[in-house]
């Protein structure tokens, strides 16, 4: 079985290449914003809907009028930027039809456009552009040149698309590869339920706790100091730019640490279980601000804010995303279940009551007296719910 997978590597550009990469990103940002303004103006003034095909056909004229700017870059990468805008509009209309908050596509500021994509290897870009080089790997980008890549692991499958992203002061290349061979693990014959939390990132139905390192909390003092330093800088100054870079570097480090924790936790689970059952969490809903207004705020606003920060610091969404593709590659089955009442239900007798959850860590059933760690009790209930769904699906 083959799967699709992405490989991300750090770039080592020279100073001139870094300037060219920044110029490429800026020109693509301006193209995106100009295309958005084109759509808005055409509809507002003439009631005309502009689509991707219309704007793509205008690219040749834009490039001809700007030989020192837009014409420097790959035509296909500019088409990918226009497709990105078209995708944003399609998502907007889908939300309108579904009755959700629409969120009209917005113009991209300098800090909100950080990626350029080349849709096909060999069209304006080339992975491993110097295969005869004995020690290093390079990626060739039109208008930039051969950029050295810190390739820390082999690339498998067929490279389909190439993207370059900027994260703070670092540049990365992301390869999207098809036909990557799956790496199935030996069967264990075990099934496990997992309960995600703040005290422990993951608690399994077997009673194992995977720690939550709280990376943001560990970095909070340094981040607060960097943000205070940023607040004192004159807007638009060179010192402010450096202060912004320091804050961004700290956030990027936390992001990398969180991703590393997710990879290690997910790998431990797919090695241990053939079937993994987890909660189908709506993290965006769970981390909304406390209800109320400025004049009449809701109750426990500070406590809710702290809980939201702890949930986001734990990185549940990152963990579930990593678990999904690791389980697919390893040939493991993953089941998501409704989390309703899993923390209030007794795993022994099935009694459901809010009072069963004595504390964050203690569960004591009011009906049968069963006691257990609250997260372990919840993980057992999650496992049973998942196995019931699996059995019903097999019987259907």
UniProtKB/TrEMBL annotation:
InterPro entries membership: Cas12f1-like_TNB, RNA-guided_DNA_endo/Transpos, Transposase, Transposase_put_HTH
Residue ranges constituting the Probable transposase IS891/IS1136/IS1341 domain according to the UniProt record: 182-289
Domain Cas12f1-like TNB residues, every copy: 316-382
Keywords assigned by UniProt, alphabetized: DNA recombination, DNA-binding, Metal-binding, Transposition, Zinc
Keyword Metal-binding in record: yes
Domain of life from the UniProt record: Bacteria
Domain Transposase putative helix-turn-helix: 1-45
Family assignment from sequence similarity: In the C-terminal section; belongs to the transposase 35 family.
Cited NCBIfam families: guided_TnpB
Listed name of the protein: Transposase
Organism the protein comes from: Nonomuraea coxensis DSM 45129
């Amino acid at each position: 079985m083959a799967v699709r997978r992405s490989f991300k590597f750090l770039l080592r550009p020279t100073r001139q290449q870094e300037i060219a990469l920044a110029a490429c990103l800026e020109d693509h940002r301006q193209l995106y914003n100009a295309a958005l303004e084109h759509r808005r103006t055409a509809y507002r003034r003439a009631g005309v809907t502009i689509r991707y095909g219309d704007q793509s056909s205008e690219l040749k004229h834009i490039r001809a009028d700007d030989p020192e700017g837009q014409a420097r870059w790959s035509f296909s990468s500019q088409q990918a930027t226009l497709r990105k805008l078209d995708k944003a509009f399609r998502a907007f209309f889908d939300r309108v039809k579904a009755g959700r908050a629409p969120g009209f596509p917005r113009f991209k500021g300098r800090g909100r456009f950080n990626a350029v994509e080349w849709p096909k290897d060999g069209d304006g870009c080339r992975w491993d552009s110097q295969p005869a080089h004995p020690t290093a790997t390079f990626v060739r980008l039109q208008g930039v040149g051969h950029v050295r890549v810190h390739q820390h692991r082999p690339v498998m499958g067929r490279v389909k698309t190439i993207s370059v992203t900027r994260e703070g002061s670092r540049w990365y290349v992301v390869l999207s590869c098809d036909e990557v061979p799956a790496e199935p693990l030996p069967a264990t014959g075990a099934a496990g339920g997992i309960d995600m939390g703040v005290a422990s990132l993951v608690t399994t139905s077997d009673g194992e706790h995977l720690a939550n390192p709280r990376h943001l909390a560990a970095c909070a003092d340094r981040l607060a100091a960097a943000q205070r330093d940023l607040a004192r800088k004159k807007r638009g100054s060179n010192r402010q730019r450096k202060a912004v870079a320091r804050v961004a570097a700290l956030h990027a480090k936390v992001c990398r640490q969180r991703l590393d924790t997710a990879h290690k936790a997910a790998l431990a689970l797919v090695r241990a279980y053939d079937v993994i059952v987890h909660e189908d969490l709506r993290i965006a809903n769970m981390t909304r601000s406390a209800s109320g207004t400025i004049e009449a705020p809701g109750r426990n606003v500070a406590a809710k804010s702290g809980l939201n920060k702890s949930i986001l610091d734990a990185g549940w969404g990152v963990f579930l995303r990593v678990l999904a593709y690791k389980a697919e590659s390893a040939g493991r089955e993953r089941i998501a279940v409704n989390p309703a009442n899993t923390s209030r239900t007794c795993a022994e007798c099935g009694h459901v009551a809010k009072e069963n959850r004595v504390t964050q860590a203690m569960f004591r059933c009011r009906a049968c007296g069963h006691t257990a760690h609250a997260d372990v009790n919840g993980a057992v209930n999650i496992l049973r719910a998942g196995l019931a769904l699996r059995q019903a699906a097999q019987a259907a």
